[in-house]
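Convert to structure. Protein one:
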Amino acid sequence: MMVAMRNEGASFGGLSHKLISPRARVILLAFIYFYLLLIAGAFGNVVVSTAVGLKAAPMAWLFLTIGGILAGQMIYKWRKDIILTTVVTVLIALFGIYLGTILPSDQVLGASIASSRPVWAVVAFVFCYFAAVLPIWRFALPINYVASYIVFLGLFFGIIGIFTLHPDFTLPATTDFSIKIGPLWPILFVTIACGSISGWHSIVSSSGTARQLENELDARPVGGGVMFVEMMLAIFALIIAGTIYASPVEYSAAIKLGPAAIFAAGVSKFLGALGMPADIGRSYGSVMMIVLAITIMQLVVRFMRVATSELLSDISPVFRNPHVGTFIASVLGILLVLSGWWQYLWVLFGGANQLMASLALMLITVWLMSEGKSYAWTFYPMIFMFVTTVAALLYTSWNLLQKVFAGGVQGEAFVGNLLMGLVGFFLVICALILGYEGFKAFNRFRTLKGQGAPAKA
């Protein structure tokens, strides 16, 4: 965030071009595009599975969208007071959560449509399409603003519910060094619980947040604050997973229904400790899941549109058209969700996300060197994250491809393992090239410093 603010709000691509090399910019943009596609598939599945599995969720999602669009109109067109706008629009969203319990999607749309994954996949990416092409104040920003209150309120009162119930953990405190998805190192470090480091937050803070802050002094509370809240959300989800079922066997049965169902059940239990009816609590939990996933998805599609323009606009000016890049991103996202390949990419996505974080640390380190500042505090964490995440991607990709080479999978599983394994190796190759370019940049700035020349030269 700070590096971007000091460089006129430059994106990852612009920063890599300026600080490392022109080739680094192209490689990084290619890495980012496939990384974003993994996010679109992973979180697209969360949205679709939640809409299909929790029939109260679509109505809550609809009213959240209505409240968000109204918030944009009230703030930017009608110039209404922000407090009045917030109260009105958040109440609309909360009413939608209640309405979802009495008008579930299978009653409104019919069982076949309400349970159709293709229908909800198209709805999700049409939503993201509008978020990507409309002015940000019209759709994406106000919807995210209203949605943030839903998440904050659910998290705040859910935590109070935890202290009220004081539940015991029923899952074991420890596991073996290696479990089904891999060994403790490197897999533990690529779980999606971004309380300390995150590639996604790095992308958003550089090309998004840095252009919105009025003062550099706001960077610390905003950047640090969002990571703190992310950490609290991760702990909240961990407590839900570890306490709401009577035994590991019961948890194993519940996990087959998907993470959305478990999260909604946990929110219902802890909000129920404060007097909220169970069905409304489940509806609240389901809309929290959709909010967390869809707000990421709409930004992903927007960033993919920008990456398409930066990568391909030199080939043809048609790629500068925002509708073209957005359409391509949406189609690829729908294909990934409906194909079923998403189930092979969660750990792959985790590795890619945290590898992106190590590349962010690389950019920060090079910038610190260029400014003549101390850089050890970002250099050594970068080395650890880079080695760890490359190892995680190699481990995951090899496991996926090994199933293909061994002939142990067929049909959809064959294609899914093959494609995701190849994407993983592609990301590793990109990362190694970027690491080499970064190493050359380190040496360049060291040489300039040793010669007594200004580092910025």
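Protein two, convert as well:
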Amino acid sequence: MKAQPASVPSPHQSVWAATVERPMFSPLQENVRTDVCVIGAGIAGLTTAYELIQAGKNVVVLDDGPLAGGMTELTTAHLTCAIDDRYCAIERWHGQEGARLTAQSHSAAIDRIEEIAKNEAIDCDFQRVDGYLFLPSRLDDDMLRQEMEAAHRAGLTDVVRVDRAPFESFESGPALRFPRQGQFHPLKYLLGVTGAIMRDGGRIYCNTHADTIQGGDAAKVTAGDFAVHCDAIVVATNTPINDLLVIHTKQSGYMTYVIGAKIPPGHVERALYWDTENPYHYVRVQTVRKNGEEYELLIVGGEDHKSGQAEDTGERHQRLETWARARFTAMGKIEFTWPEMCGRQRTGWRSSGATPWIKTMCLS
């Protein structure tokens, strides 16, 4: 493998892609045998491969694009157990036990990312921060009470109501504080995970499209003229590529948009922020180190819509900038703009890219 130099930021390149050199892996060029074939080299696939290798399995990873592309490259990297559609809604759909499992799994994912980064000495800017859910107005104040009570029933008993989010430049009004959330640089993290996978005997093939997937005793994945023969297959592609009915009929593709602008050090307290507007906004701060320069970047996302139902990307980025400049008065030049892809179930559940194991499927 060889490194792909980080390029000069383009108008639609994420800060993550602009600040790392990613390794390049060759396509599959022969038939191979392994214990487990993982399809997808994003955070779900690479984390699954890492965990399987730690458990003593031989693993092959396939991806039809570059390493850690797709959603993983375009995320805003909020690591959180606060759910977009709220615990109130999850409790209605899946009961208190479903809400409890949701909180438990998301919290465990943050813990595991922290543990892997520590064990593998991965310098990925991992940081524990609080998360704040705040209101666009005081009219929905009862929603915060209901959500806090539902979060408590789900086991998140340390979620509390506070008078405001810790913004200095504007008054947010009341908010819920979710302690011990996390943030990191996702590509730095996954480069470290990739190094551990390769060190321990894993094999990764990129630009390799999985054409057919066959489970059972003779499990295999075919890719062009070659095949991976294995005991089990893990599909870690966000929307499962092996099933055209069960998931696809319940999930809509969504686009959301992100801007990144320079801010003075300390202008925004390190935390994760979300409001309850529709579409909602989400905010965090990232330290950027590039070409000998270091600065703080304010990352602001939002303006969601179903994929294919809007063509006004520039206008949506502009609306994000207008929203942000009205609240963060010292915000400087826009350094990055990019789209973020996500999937949302008809029940309302949306993938945030925050939890590595939330959308994997195993065939054996």
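The longest helix spans residues 86-119. The radius of gyration is 21 Å.
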